[in-house]
């Protein structure tokens, strides 16, 4: 991948804030958060390059002392385009953020400018007074000046806390959550369409850190085969670095995450796998760990059965498909590559690829259908959420359910099947879907529709009049085009 792809909405949002600064002559702040390698720094750098105003960009160093952090900040300020006279920026670092922010305020020009602080959670981690010093400097020195302050961070929980109601910077910054590139942008970046674009998105997680090493026009499985021969490939290093940064110690949280990544979806299975020789992880220990991983770290997603009645069990999955692939498939291949046996790693990938892809595509299909519903592209304009349904025995397990709300709906609109394995959706599949859909609480065959999303299309034997919607990989990608 070369050049800068996508992010039109995010760039427009930042430009709108800068225009507001220009028009008012006063400051604005935006807190930008997103997982590592999602492209926060690249986005903001692209914005700064396009903005054509003076800017400074300072990136914190993890583990630096307060004195080192302030010294690095002042050096970045002095070397930036902000100060009219660089000699006005003293490099004598006291380790005091109030002093550093006063120096910043003294050299800010009277014309609009941008100040970027990258990896803000590390600054707060190094110095407990940083948040308060930032708030004081903003209120007294910076907010009245024409400056756009951008605060970046990869620790999602700490970035959320930065602007939380009980923190000093509450109410002072807008929040921009930067997600991965979507399937349409991923395909455009790599010159891939349809199923190939979807495969590339699932493998990379839409992370620019992986996509920049992807040869243009290369299908996913071919890319995987080539990268498995390189133990230092970004395909391995990006998810491994994310694991090391978020979970540096092999503690219970890491064991729970790895259990989910290996394919355990229910609480009982996760507890058994994440336990030890004394038995499964107790419920009292598992519950807070799952809450932390899902609600604070945002590394897990929780899926609940969608119908007009509350259902169980909830199912867990790794939210980032690239990390999910690493934990479920690529970590074994990585170990083989390190041992100089890439062929063995490639065989593991090829053996597990089809089954992994069939499961990994499900949340993407659901999200794509939700986007299409919002855009008015579905026959049911009142669809608000798309999920799945299952009972305690997982018999049946319905891939797609469209409803007005979740997890307990007032009304269902459709049920459907995702056929992503080899072969077309055939008459047998249709019969199974019709029989299974009738078991969903609230599904009325006379009022609700049936839909199919198929990798290989619909077999000629299927009576198309019995289906209200049939999607191909191309339709999934099209749902993401602005």
Low-confidence stretches: none
Q: Number of DSSP strands?
A: 12
Give the overall average pLDDT: 93
User: The CATH topology of the largest domain, please?
Assistant: Rossmann fold
Strand order of the largest sheet: 2-3-4-1-5
Name the CATH superfamily assignment of the largest domain: P-loop containing nucleotide triphosphate hydrolases
- What would you say the CATH architecture of the largest domain is? 3-Layer(aba) Sandwich
Question: How big a fraction of the residues is strand?
Answer: 5-15%
Count of helical regions? 19
Terminus-to-terminus distance: 21 Å
> How many whole angstroms does the radius of gyration measure?
25 Å
Give the C-level CATH assignment of the largest domain: Alpha Beta
Helicity range: 40-55%
Structural domain count: 3
Helix and strand content put the structural class at alpha/beta
Overall body shape? globular
Largest sheet: 5 strands, parallel
Key structural traits:
single chain, 482 residues, alpha/beta, Rossmann fold, Trna Endonuclease, Chain: A, domain 1, 3 domains, 5-stranded parallel beta sheet, 19 helices, 46% helix
Topology overview:
Blueprint: H1 8-24, E1 28-33, H2 40-51, E2 55-59, H3 66-78, H4 97-107, E3 113-118, H5 120-126, H6 130-142, E4 147-153, H7 156-162, E5 174-177, H8 183-190, H9 194-204, H10 208-211, H11 220-227, H12 234-246, H13 252-261, H14 267-274, H15 283-296, E6 300-303, E7 315-318, H16 321-338, H17 342-374, E8 385-390, E9 397-403, E10 412-419, H18 427-437, E11 449-454, E12 469-471, H19 473-478
Parallel strand pairs: 1-4, 1-5, 2-3, 3-4, 10-11, 11-12
Antiparallel strand pairs: 6-7, 8-9, 9-10
Helix pairs in contact: 1-2, 3-4, 4-6, 8-9, 12-16, 13-14, 13-15, 16-17
């Amino acid at each position: 991948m070369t050049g800068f792809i996508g992010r039109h909405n995010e760039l427009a949002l930042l430009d709108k804030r800068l225009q507001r600064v220009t028009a008012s002559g006063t400051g604005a702040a935006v807190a930008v958060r997103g997982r590592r390698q999602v492209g926060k720094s690249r986005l903001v750098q692209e914005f700064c390059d396009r903005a054509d105003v003076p800017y400074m960009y300072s990136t914190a160093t993890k583990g630096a002392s307060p004195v080192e952090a302030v010294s690095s900040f002042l050096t970045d300020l002095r070397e930036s385009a902000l100060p009219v006279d660089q000699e006005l920026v003293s490099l004598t670092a006291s380790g005091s953020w109030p002093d550093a922010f006063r120096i910043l305020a003294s050299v800010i020009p009277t014309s609009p400018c941008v100040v970027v602080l990258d990896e803000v959670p590390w600054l707060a981690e190094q110095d407990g007074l940083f948040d308060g010093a930032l708030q004081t400097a903003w209120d007294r020195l910076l907010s009245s000046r024409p400056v756009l302050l951008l605060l970046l961070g990869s620790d999602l929980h700490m970035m959320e806390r930065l602007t939380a109601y009980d923190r000093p910077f509450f109410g002072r910054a807008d929040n921009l959550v930067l997600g991965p590139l979507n399937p349409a942008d991923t395909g455009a970046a790599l010159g891939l369409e349809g199923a190939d674009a979807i495969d590339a998105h699932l493998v990379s997680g839409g992370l620019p850190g992986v996509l920049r090493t992807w040869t243009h026009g290369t299908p996913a499985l071919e890319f995987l085969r080539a990268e498995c021969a390189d133990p230092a490939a970004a395909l391995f290093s990006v998810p491994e670095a994310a694991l090391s940064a978020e979970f540096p110690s092999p503690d219970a949280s890491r064991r729970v995450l790895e259990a989910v990544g290996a394919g355990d979806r229910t609480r009982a299975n996760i507890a058994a796998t994440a336990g030890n020789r004394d038995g499964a992880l107790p419920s009292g220990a598992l519950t807070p760990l799952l809450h932390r991983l899902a609600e604070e770290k945002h590394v897990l997603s929780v899926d609940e059965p969608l119908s007009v009645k509350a259902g169980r069990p909830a199912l867990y999955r790794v939210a980032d498909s690239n990390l999910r692939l690493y934990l479920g498939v690529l970590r074994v291949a990585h170990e083989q590559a390190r041992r100089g046996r890439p062929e063995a790693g490639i065989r593991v990938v090829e053996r597990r690829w089809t089954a992994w892809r069939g499961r990994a595509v499900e949340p993407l299909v659901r999200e794509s259908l939700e986007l299409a519903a919002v855009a008015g592209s579905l026959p049911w304009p009142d669809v608000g959420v798309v999920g799945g349904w299952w009972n305690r025995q997982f018999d049946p397990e319905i891939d797609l359910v469209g409803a007005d709300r979740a997890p307990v709906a007032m009304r269902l609109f459709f049920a459907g099947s995702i056929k992503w394995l080899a072969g077309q959706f055939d008459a047998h599949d249709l019969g199974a879907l019709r029989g299974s859909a009738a078991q969903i609480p609230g599904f009325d065959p006379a009022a609700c529709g049936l839909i199919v999303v198929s990798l290989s299309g619909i077999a000629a034997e299927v009576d198309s009049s019995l289906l209200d919607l049939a999607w191909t990989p191309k339709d999934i990608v099209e749902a993401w085009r602005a």
